[in-house]
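Reminder: ligand-aware prediction takes two inputs, not one.
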Amino acid sequence: MFDGPFTESIIKRAVDAEVCEIEIVDIRDFTHDKHNTADDTPYGGGCGMVMKVEPVVEAVESVTKDSPDARVIYLSPQGPRFTQNKARELAALPHLVLLCGHYEGIDERAFELAVHEELSIGDYVLTGGELPAMVVADSVIRLLPGAVGNDASVQNDSFWNGLLDCPHYTRPEEYRGLRVPGVLLSGHHAKIDEWRHQQALEKTHRIRPDLYETYHSTDPQDEA
Ligand code: SAM
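Here is what comes back for the chain with S-adenosylmethionine:
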């Protein structure tokens, strides 16, 4: 599952440039029986399967044993919501271990033995933790110095300063009667910066009033 996203575009370039290393570990390699059983029925009955504690804990330990600073994150719909601020926090860490669940999730004892925190990518339930792990990895890797062509460009993205990004235009100047705003063609950098900021404020106010309130309460000078 990881081959596509991890071998394309910015992540591929970051790996090739040794900005980061990615290792995929198969939990099944840490099973204890000849059938490679990684899941079992739940104690107490009920539907679904549960990922067994031994292979989960031993798979995590195989990558953390020589890495005392590794942060182990279990992707789970029950975790706190993953955000851009969290991505920035994780990008400053030397080693992340992203643990992917399946079925009903992992045996609860694995949290105590092998997990530092949980993260959710949103209030919906996916089949497994692989897609959430790819989401977290992508958003963290693009923040690493040297991962994107111009490091400053990630700082203009949505959420970096608490606002959504401003609208963007490229050639042609006119398409089907729609013109690029004149200020962007003026060459006046201070006016362009001011226009972009006002547009970002207006868009955030309209689409994400929750973000706007937070931004506004910390920067009362700005009016949408
Ligand atoms: N029984 C679990 C519950 O209701 O909380 C759902 C398990 S889900 C079917 C299987 C796995 O997918 C989870 O263990 C987790 O690793 C991953 N997963 C599903 N939704 C997720 C989300 N929104 N964020 C992060 N991981 C998620």
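The chain has two domains: 3-141, 158-218. Helices lie at 3-6, 9-16, 53-64, 84-91, 109-114, 130-141, 189-207, 209-218. We will return to this case in the review session.
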